[in-house]
Write a structure and sequence with these properties.
Length: 398
């Protein structure tokens, strides 16, 4: 996020064997408690904010921003932490997967902004690849860059390769031909006259900013990664001063943009994208752009990853006061459960900007209506081994 920043439905025929080993049981110490302190194997609250989870060789690896105490903890003072688990409840601290640098000339120098790290495994190269939102030290959110790092093991150490603005010199695949041209002097003057701070502004130039950034690369803030069934990987990120999401195909080695991307929900001001696939459709959960303050989550769907995308409204089901703030949280990832194709966990963060390391995690299972539309429902505690049949449809108004 620019700091401007699903109980699941599984067919009744699915048996417990599909998720055997996910948890020892539903005993009191074997449940997830959304929003509560979550101790690791040392009894310390897990420090992996804005994170995502990789499943590899029978183990889940949770990567996230390692925060420090106080407001300065929102900067990258340590790096990216990693935790390991076989049951998604009990997590072992595996240390810092990607440390910040003490080299003041590095984009990853201590005191930069490093957010929303995600890791995917490339089966062809045997490498683990991490992407994240990176802002060079002292520049606020003007950099809007993507960082990439690589490792031989899921716990690292990861080696920082570069930071870039994606897709320099490439036009979006869904941009009309008449928009595939540099800005005119008048258009440049219009963009320069606006106070673009990462949130909705009057007169926002919906179709101008990606053209402004053609030569130097597209802005990339809040981001996520997604690997499709065919092994093709994609990066999705808030771009165009947060006005529009972009989704970008990665190269075969996952280390760079392939120069093939699309604009998603232009002018919608979405951030915190979390993308997953179910029932042959692509589902996207995002939030609005309201800085540290939480807001209603947003759900969108498409038959193709390239769109067109249709918005479906707030996926949370529950009291209005809670769903209006997404239970005081913001999306960060949707985790597919290994061995259970209809089971997903929605991951979100409760940001605490005044004491960053005290941020909490809101994990709830994804549920599905009979018509296949996902929704989220708060549970004070829940057992990941539970199986739930799809519920009757409920209205999701845009």
């Amino acid at each position: 996020m620019q700091r401007s920043p699903y109980l699941w439905g599984i067919a009744a025929a699915l048996t417990l064997g599909c998720i055997a080993g996910l948890s020892a049981g539903a005993a009191e110490n074997n449940v997830i408690r959304p929003g509560e302190p979550w101790p690791d194997n040392h009894g310390v609250h897990i420090n992996a904010h804005g994170g995502g989870v990789l499943y590899h060789a029978g183990t889940y690896y949770w990567f996230g921003e390692h925060k420090t105490a106080g407001p300065s903890g929102n900067l990258a003072n340590v790096g990216v932490g990693v935790y390991a688990s076989t049951d998604l409840i009990h997590w072992r601290d595996e240390g810092i997967a990607l440390p910040v640098s003490d080299d003041p000339g590095s984009d990853l120098t201590r005191g930069c902004i490093l957010e929303r790290p995600k890791v995917i495994f490339n089966a062809a190269t045997g490498k683990f690849v991490m992407w994240f939102h990176l802002e060079p030290k002292g520049g606020g959110y003007r950099g809007a860059r993507s960082g990439v790092a690589i490792a031989d093991q899921p716990t690292g150490p990861f080696r920082f390769l570069a930071s870039i603005r994606p897709n320099a010199g490439a036009w979006p695949r869904n941009a009309p031909p008449d928009q595939q041209r540099p800005l005119s002097p008048a258009e440049s003057a219009l963009v320069a006259s606006l106070d673009l701070k990462g949130g909705p502004v009057p007169g926002f130039p919906v179709d101008l900013i990606f053209r402004r950034d053609f030569a130097g690369g597209q802005m990339a803030r809040d981001m996520n990664l997604f690997v499709d069934d065919d092994g093709q990987a994609y990066q999705i990120y808030a771009s165009e001063d947060n006005g529009t999401l972009q989704i970008s195909r990665l190269s075969a080695d996952y280390l760079r943009p392939a120069g093939d991307y699309a604009r998603i929900l232009p002018g919608g001001f979405n951030e915190a994208p979390a993308l997953f696939k179910h029932g042959g459709k692509y589902w996207l959960i995002t939030s609005g752009c309201t800085g540290w303050a939480p807001n209603p989550a947003r759900l969108a769907v498409a038959d193709s990853i390239w769109g067109p995308w249709t918005t479906l409204g707030n996926p949370w089901n529950g009291p209005g006061a809670q769903t209006a703030t997404s239970y005081d949280s913001q999306s960060t990832f949707v985790l597919p459960i290994a061995g259970a194709p209809d089971a997903f966990i929605f991951m979100a963060d409760r940001w605490r900007p005044d004491d960053a390391q005290d941020g909490r995690y809101v994990w709830v299972p994804v549920r599905f209506q009979l018509d296949g539309v996902p929704f989220l429902e708060w549970k004070q505690t829940w057992d990941p081994t539970a199986i739930h049949a799809p519920l009757p449809p409920i209205n999701h108004s845009p």
